[in-house]
Amino acid sequence: MSEPEVIRLNWSTLRYLTTSAKLLRWRIEHPQADTDALKLGRAIHCLLLEPEAVAARWTTQGQCAAETKGGGRCASTGSLYHSGEWYCRVRGHAPEGAGPAPEGVEVITAEGMELARICAEAVRAHGPAAALLSKGAAEQEIEWVHAETGIACRGRIDLLRPDGLVDLKSTRRGTLAEIRMDAARMHYYAQLAWYTDGCIAAGRLPADAPLPHLVAVSTVEPYDVAAMQLSRVAYEAGQILYRDLLLRYARCQAADMWPGIAPDIETLDLPPWAGGMNGSEEGSAEEW
Q: Each residue of 167-217: pLDDT tens digit?
């Protein structure tokens, strides 16, 4: 009898527990739909980290490649794919066997791919970011077991260097303050700690590995770039957060209970900016 497959927990799933166990369970059963922003991010990753794979993994859905009887090119937009080309549905234009893009080939608009190329060039032109991405192994799968909870874990590292790891993010943010805010709000610091500790546990990095780096590229003009290294304080805060989430996940799994954001009656309080909370009478009923 074959061994049962070990289901390993990744950060993309665990992060939902920062909202609620109910959301985590929901997303396991109802994966989030793909978006143009996610697709753009993947295209930027491929252009920067695996440029040799772009031609095989990506295609832009464009003009039909068939020639017309007059010797020109068909002006219709292609919807059938064959051997790297798109064809329309006019009889005789598409070769036999044409159909949707094959599995493993992602379809992106020409505008989307052009934006991904602009962002990739911006990263290559940024000295510190380019240096961080200049060596290492891209898209590395790692597996480990969290010692305290016994939970089987996994991760996919954007770039694993001999001296640490680098995570690549695309963002619509345009300032360092906004990127730092996103790192806190979207828990990038915990993700980076999770990846680093996972690499150490899997023997892919030494225990005294340097703190991880983040490269962020803005997808809006002027396509600015920031290269940042996680601070020791942020790294340790990330360790605390992901450990907390793993312990909660273990309890939920053991009891098969996945509570939402408010399993008990909560107090409805007011924020400081609400009328009357700062001692003013602004907005009081007496004005009416």
A: 999 999 999 999 999 999 999 999 999 999 999 999 999 999 999 999 999
For residue 262, what are the CA distances in angstroms to 20, 70, 241, 288? 9, 68, 20, 36
Task: Tally the domains of the chain.
Answer: 2
Tell me, yes or no, whether 34 and 68 share the same domain: no
| Tokens, residue 3 | 């061994």
Beta bridge partners of 144: 153
Contact 43, 67 (CB under 8 A): no
Sole residue written with tokens 């225990």:
207
Within a domain: 177: yes
CA gap 238, 193 in Å, rounded: 5
- Domain match, 79 and 206 both: no
**Rounded to an integer, what distance in angstroms lies between the CA atom of residue 141 and that of residue 224?**
29
